[in-house]
Amino acid sequence: MSELNNKNILLGVTGGIAAYKSAILARRLIDSGATVRVVMTQGAQAFIQPMTFQALTGNPVHTSLLDAEAEAAMGHIELARWADLILIAPASANTLARLAHGLADDLLGTLCLATDAPLYVAPAMNRLMWAHAATVHNCQTLRSRGVNFIEPAVGAQACGETGSGRLPEPEDIRDQLIGMLQGVNAGQAPANGEQSMGKPLNSQHLLITAGPTQEAIDPVRYISNKSSGKMGFAIAEAAVNLGAKVTLIAGPVSLSCSESIKRIDVVTAEQMHNAALKTAKDSDVFISVAAVSDYRLEKIEDKKIKKNDEQMQLTLIRNPDILKSVSEMEDRPFCVGFAAETNNVREHALGKLERKSLDMIAANHVAQANNPVFGSDTNALDVYWAGNEGHTHIASANKSVVAHALLELVAQRLATNVLSSAANNAAATTSSSDPA
Predict the structure, then answer these.
(1) pLDDT value, residue 130
(2) Cα(179)–Cα(201) distance, rounded to whole angstroms?
(3) Cα 189 to Cα 152, 199, 204, 414, 415, distances in angstroms
(4) What is the DSSP string of 275-341?
(5) Mean per-residue pLDDT for 139-164?
């Protein structure tokens, strides 16, 4: 059953060319079982007509805070109480600024202040506007208040530029929303009556490695692999949305990430190893997603190797095992490995789980024609955890959805470990207090 089944979703549409995608998004949400009502800002109405959303949702569209007929019955309060969640897509730079400053001089801003429903925003704007210090600060403010972000996509923009700031496709927004809601449901029950705000990884520090590494042969050649880094970056973004503090160690990739993620860029396996060991001691969870080069050149030539003979021999030596090094630390974090396999996936994954003393491993079959993992936007995982106690299959989906599902399992295992540790401590205390 879809996480959106029987959900009342208030869809906020703000000014921007991407508003046309919101019409398709409304239908996709309804197709997934949600009831949708739409609130449009004045700017949104310059790009798309309210009648479009009324026809698609079957509900009146709300455009004005000062609608005398609606406000006779306190319409904005009724809407705020009706919503199970508010989704603003697209969320313009102006809207993010208004939300950060708590402005309530239009209907959408007022609703966001008058509801206790969770708020999700999907920003869309020019790449420079998205990267501007003011927008970054506003987003940080909103994140600190528990607002959930569906990150912009990277690609061609209406202005003719290319970069981060595109509104994701409607299906991707829906899938990410479902994944984030699944993460909410995976969270522990709030302690002492406090609200969890749907942040099952709140206060956790996650260290994530992503992308390939490169091992130089000479000044113009190197050994590497096909990893794009997309899965690791998706996990990092999902972790932020679930409340975690995130450090991302990235190999050479052409991907951007949220400003709230501490990013460390490296090239070689040794550089990634050193950065991981330095950061892991202060981390609660280590997720090793990077496709690290197993070997490096014994000697790197300082000049380009010229083509002389029919054959060329290179002598390789082993790189340090980053995941094993972290798992062997005395006060180590919860360790999650990845295994990209072409055959005997379960056997190889369980072997790696035991051999490296991991808490969890996520395996994917990279040789299937219908699952081109490297470079694609989708993935599917088989997840195993310590002691061969359990196994969960995460079906093929957008990597952001898979990332949320994986982190849901991590949150569950962390909660189980905490409860187990507490029970062991209680048993030890009882035993020590028994009379001799």
Answers:
(1) 85
(2) 14
(3) 31, 11, 16, 13, 10
(4) HHHHHHTT-SEEEE--B--SEEESS--SSPPP--SS-----EEEPP-HHHHHHTSTTPPEEEEEEEE
(5) 80
* CA distances to 39, 91, 104, 116, 197 from 98, in Å: 16, 11, 8, 18, 22
Only one residue has tokens 């470990």, namely 417
Of 50, 54, 52, 53, nearest to 64 (Cα)? 50
Say which DSSP state 62 is in.
B
In sequence order, the β-bridge partners of residue 221 are: 218
- pLDDT tens digits for range 60-112: 999 988 665 554 444 678 899 999 999 999 999 999 999 999 999 899 999 99
What is the tens place of the pLDDT at every residue in 196-241?
Answer: 334 678 889 999 999 999 999 999 999 999 899 999 999 998 898 7
What are the structural domains of the chain? 8-185 (3.40.50.1950), 196-294+314-415 (3.40.50.10300)
Contact at 8 Å (CB) between 409 and 187? Answer: no
Give the HSE-up count for residue 194: Cα atoms under 13 Å, Cβ half-sphere: 11
Give the closest residue to 173 by CA, choosing from 365, 322, 22. 22
Distance CA 308, CA 349 (A): 42
CA nearest 289: which of 318, 258, 348, 248?
248
As a whole number, mean pLDDT of residues 288-302 equals: 94
Alpha-carbon distance 224 to 212, whole Å?
7
pLDDT for residue 429 is more than 70: no
Residue 390 has pLDDT above 90, yes or no: no
Three-class SS state of 7: coil
**Which helix (H) or strand (E) element contains residue 364?**
strand 360-365
Which tokens in the block code for residue 43?
A: 């700017």
Residue keyed to tokens 């501007």 = 132
Structure tokens at 309: 């003979």
User: Tens digits of per-residue pLDDT, 330-380?
Assistant: 999 999 999 887 788 888 989 999 999 999 999 987 766 555 556 677 888
- Tell me if 73 sits within 8 A of 64, measured CB to CB: no
What is the 8-class DSSP label of residue 385?
A: E
Active site residues: 159
Confidence category of residue 195, pLDDT binned at 50, 70, 90 = very low
The two three-digit tokens of residue 91, written as one number: 């969320």
**Helix, coil or strand: residue 384:** strand
